[in-house]
Structures are given as C-alpha cells and as structure tokens.
Amino acid sequence: MTAEPTSLYDIPGPRARVRHGLYGVIGSVLVLGLVAFVLYRLWLADQFAGTLWEWLQYQRVQVDLLRAIGETLRAFALAAVLALVFGAVFAAGRLSEHPLFRAPSVLVVEFFRAVPLVIMMFVFYYGLPTAGLKMTPFLAVVLGLTLYNGSVLAEVFRAGVLAMPHGQSEAAYALGMRKTQVMVSVLLPQALRAMLPSIVSQLVVLLKDTALGFIITYDELLYYMRSLGGQVAFHRPLIPVMIIGGGIYVVMCLLLSWLARYLESRNRRSGRRPAVPVPPELPEAA
Amino acid sequence: MNVLLGNLDLYGPGFLTTVELFGCAALGSLLLGTILAVLRVSPVPVLRAAGATYVTLLVNTPLTLLFLFFAFGFPILRILSLSPFWGAVCALTVYTSAFVCEAVRSGINTVSFGQTEASRAIGLTFGQTLANVVLPQALRSVVPPLMSQLIALLKNTTIAAGFSVVEAGAIQYYLSDRGENVLVGLLWVALFFVLLVVPLTLVQRGLERRWRVAR
Fold it and tell me: Taking the model in full, what pTM does it have?
C-alpha cells in the first residue's frame, strides 16, 4: 500500500522513517490486541464450539440460506430497476424548462429524500392497510427502496447532466438539434458514463437497505439470520450466523462495486471517456 | 390533526429521544471518524491498512445488521451491558464513523501537494503551513459532505425503532395500540422529519455552493 501524495506531511527522512516504524509497531500491537481481545471474549462465551457451527452442514439450512439470499436479491433487483426509472423520470422533470413539470418534481424528490426509509416502509406496511390497501412486506420494501433511492438517483442524474461543459449542448443546438435530441444523443450518454461510480455506490446502498425489510418482517437474508440464530435445535448460534451472514453481505456489496469498476475499465479500453471525469461521490450513509 | 394533538405525549418524547440519539451518535461518529481519517492519511502503512479495512467492512455492512449485533450478539460477549438506547448509539456510531472518515479523508486529499511546497518555499513553518494553508482549504471541502452524512445519520436513527428504543420511528407501534389512525400518525412523523432535514439540506447546499466558488 503506497500513500497518495498528500500535503499533510513531507517525504520522510531517515529519522522520520524510524519513528514511523515505531508507530507502526505500536499500532499493530494495539490493533492485534483489540482483535485478540474480541476473539478471547468469543472463546470465553464458547462461540467457537463445534456444536454452534453445526448448522452449516445441514442441507435444509443451506437451501434456506440460498432462498433468503434470493429474496434479498429479488427485492434489490426489482427496486434497482424501478429506482433507475424513477430517477430518470424525475431528473428529466427537474431539468425541464416548464415550471409545471419542474415544481412537482422538486417537491417529490426533496420529500422522499428527507423522509427516513424506515418511516416510508412503515407507512406502506402499517399505514396503508388502515386506508384499505393491503400490502405484502415485499411490496412495501420495494416501494420504499424505489422512492428513496430513485429520488437520490434523480439528483445524481441531474448533477451529471449539469456538470457537462456548456460547449456540448451549445454545439448540439448549433447543429440544429431539438431539446430532446440534445439531451438524449449528446448530454445523457456522456453524463451517464461520468456518473457511473455514483450510480453504483447508490445501488450498493440500495442492496444494503434491503436489510431494513427485517423490521417489517420481510423474509430476507437478515430476517432468516435472526430466526436461524435463535433456533434452540442448533444451540442458538447467533454470533456464528452473524459472522457468516455479515460476510455474505460484504461480499455481495463488494462484487457489485467490482462489477462497476470492470464496466468502467471496459469503457476506458474502448477509448470513450467521459468529457469531464466526475470524482466518485460517497453516498449518504443511508 | 387530532391524531397529533391527542398523542402529543408520544410525539414529544419520541422526537426528543430521536434528537438525543442523533446527538450522542453524531458526537461519537465525528470523534471516531476523525481518528480513523487520521489513521488513513498517516504515513504509517499498518495504520493506513487498519483504517482502510475498517472502512471497507463497515461501508458494506447493512446498518440493521449492526443494530441486530448490538441488541442480541454483543450481550453474549459480556463485555459491557448496554441499554437499548446505548446499543443503538453504538451501532450508529460504528457505522457512521466509517462514512465520516471517508468524507474527512477525501476532503483532506483535495488540498494539493503544491500548496505545502509553495508555503514551504515562502518560508512558513510546519505549524503555519497547517494553520494558514492546508486546514482552511481542507475544512471547506470537508464540511459539506460531513453535513450530508450527519443528515443521513439523523434519518438512520429511526432504525432503532425496530430494536426497542422508543423514538420517533416507534410512535406508530403505540398509535396502533391506542386504536388511532396509523397512516395519519405516520404521515405526521414523516412531516416532522422533512421539517428537521430540509433546513439542514439547504444549509449544506448553501455552504457547498459558496465555498466552491471561493476556491
């Protein structure tokens, strides 16, 4: 691991290197000590006992685990597609020159960005039935995820289009293109490529947020982990289940990010680069 | 309106707990996040790697999983006994600090190498360089993204409702016990969040715009 050039400190000389080495040793001791302490407490609580890990061997558990992952991915896939569509529509609305389209789009996007996702899911799952609309947990999760992430994506798309240099649209207008043509054939293709990192990090957020379905009893991965972790037949293996399940979530999210990086590198190879490279923005911690 | 006025004893304390949760977790995650960011920009490779590992793991873990851990897994370790409130604060802090760390780090990295070189060339000491050149610029690019992370934290506090913390998100459980209209009650909760979040968003965007021009 090499450090990025930073203005915080000079390139270390021989004495500084010795001092940094010393910090490195102290740091490793502290980090390893912390890890060792946690492992020790886990061992004290008997969490490494074979009986607590037996559940991994059962075929029924494995099949159920795969089904739960499938449920998570099902909600993710549907919500991701819908959120992208929602985002595109409302970004177009916000970029429109007609106040009639712009005002409601601004309202909708700002509202759904401000309301916590959990509250939205509560509204759909507990609130709407009182108004006579039955909701399955799956629908409530997908709707909530779509509205929230769609609104965030709308902002991402809008920022991407606005970040294009003026020359691009001016040149297109000078060629005699119409508004829609300028947007669809000139601005969007470039903006999308530039915004890909932001879009994908928002999709990672969406994937993680499917776990909120746990609170409204949607039978996804986290929900299954909780019920598996409480089963007396397997001696309540909550901590082992969390270690494995957490690992599954991390791997899924990392795979998604890697997919994005792969697509990006393929773009680069084909020689088509975004006109303005936009630095990947960190998604909100939602 | 009746749902709100008839149940003010739920809404008041509920949102108070939300704000308390937010305050504690914000303080904790700013502290932990800054420490992590210092590790990540430090000249010591081991510390950088430790910070990077923490961030990668936490950024890719669902917050609900962390809540679940602090509610049911952590007590098994018998290190500390946490009330649901402090368990929620821990989960939020551990999670948000990873995002705070990234915001701070990327802000610091926007100050280019040439800035320090130039200030050294005109004879500023290390302290002067830091105080007059690097930090003012770093702060400008750190504060707006930091604020969006804190806004996200405020919204994330509602997850605690699923883990027996009586805050704004939990109001609806009590409303349905009292036989009130849950839909209307929930829409009031949503409205209050909009009222809390939108001014913060406006301030954040204003800062972003003003400081971007200033650079």
Answer: 0.86
